Amino acid sequence: MSSYLRVLRHRNFRYLFLSQAASVVGDRLVVVALALFITARTRSPTDLSLVLGAATVPLVMLLLFGGVWADRLPRQRIMLVTDVLRAALHGTLATLILTGEVRLWELIAIEALFGAAEAFFQPAYTGLLPQTVPVEQVQDARALTGAISNVAFLVGPAVATALVLTAGAGFAFACDAATFVVSAALLLQVRVPQVRTATEAGSSVLADLREGWQEVRSRSWLWVTVAVFAGALLCVFSQWYALAPSVTRGVYGHASVFGLFEGLAGAGAVIGSIAAIRWRPAHPLRVGILLVLTWPAQNALLALGAPIPAVGATALMTGFGFSLFGVWWETALARHIPPQLLSRVSAWDWMGSLALLPVGYFIAAPLAAAFGARGVLGVGGAIGVVLLLVALAPRATRTLSLAPRQRRSDGEVAKAAA
Question: Do residues 28 and 333 lie in contact, with contact meaning Cβ atoms separated by under 8 Å?
Fold first, then answer.
């Protein structure tokens, strides 16, 4: 708690933290509310896949450009604009739902625009946070923001379900729109110095993209991990959310067991966020990837029809491991990537990791129809284990530390050692 209080003493971080604490709660509400609303309205998994894919495709396609502009313009200004846009989009959707006029194509269009705004927000946020605290407190700041996200992940589904069943899905989207308004008001209070931008050097957008890619390519720990998670999201993440609810109903007799697993994952994530304040291993990426091996194991255990306590324990450990890995990964980027390139590198990270996720959503149902949902989950889990072990292949991944003085590429480190 003293670490949390210490990092909150920094005025700019305090306002940034409060702004994101508001919006992340709303985001967790609408993820569940959207699924419940579409399922109740159309009873079509295909419709839900279309809406989820519509939000993900523009996010993936525009992330790189979001990273370029986040390194060109004041990052808090970009975040402010995207907050206003997302408030307007979900405010409009809330109105359409409450008046009973919403149609599927309108849901798809609104969520596609929402995903496009998210593509500009995420790289700006990743680049801005390290500007609000001293470098030695970046991990504390990441851990605190992660803790709030994970608490929202834990309680959001329950609150969303209660809202949808009582007031209706429209009120859940209205709440989300309100949180973006609050977030924008708090972001207006953030004042940080502007880092040197690509615009001042007169470079083109393509040149900026190439510069960010060169930074990624020069670090094997970075590009290999991103490539591995692209495959893991395709084989593990998308198949879990598309198929696990129906599998749990078939294996355990009720789909609510899936909610239990998700709740346990959220609880593990909260515990991981607390542990991240003090746990600072010498080689965090190595430890983090080993912890995350429980993630594909969860899919495999469910596919095998393992007892609920076994799958639940794996879900708890998956949330715990992902929470720690996320804090250590974001801290590593902040410590090792030059500030003027951080948003572009973050954009390559997000885009690369999410590149295959829409494909996973779209192929889940056809694969399940051809080979059985449990078979797809099991094979995907096995592939996920192999992929995560591949992430440990580069020596740089296994030996990377979070020492702030290390800002060199793998090649520079090798030259220095020689």
Answer: no
Which residues lie closer than 8 Å to 385 by C-beta, 6 or more apart?
Answer: 293, 296, 297, 300
Would you call 191 exposed, middle or buried from its count of C-beta atoms within 10 A (0-12, 13-18, 19+)? exposed
Whose tokens are 């370029």? That residue is: 68
Q: Which of 361, 391, 385 is nearest to 296 (CA)?
A: 385
What 3-state DSSP class applies to 39? Answer: helix
DSSP 191-203: --PPPP-TGGGT-
193-238 pLDDT, tens digit each: 766 554 445 567 788 888 889 999 999 999 999 999 999 999 999 8
Residue recorded with tokens 């699924």 = 35
User: Which phi and psi (to 5°) does residue 389 adopt?
Assistant: -70, -35
Q: What interhelical angle do 138-166 and 256-278 show, nearest 10?
A: 160
- Which residues have C-beta within 8 Å of that of residue 251, sequence separation ≥ 6? 302, 305, 374
Least confident of 58-72, 145-159, 228-242, 257-271: 145-159
Which pLDDT value is given to residue 331? Answer: 85
pTM given for the model: 0.75
Q: What one-character DSSP code corresponds to residue 234?
A: I
pLDDT of residue 407 exceeding 50: no
Backbone angles phi, psi at 247, to 5 degrees: -65, -45
What domains can you pick out in the chain, each with its CATH number? 10-195 (1.20.1250.20), 210-409 (1.20.1250.20)
- Cβ proximity of 336 and 219 under 8 Å: yes
| Chain segment 295-315, per-residue pLDDT in tens | 999 999 999 999 999 999 999
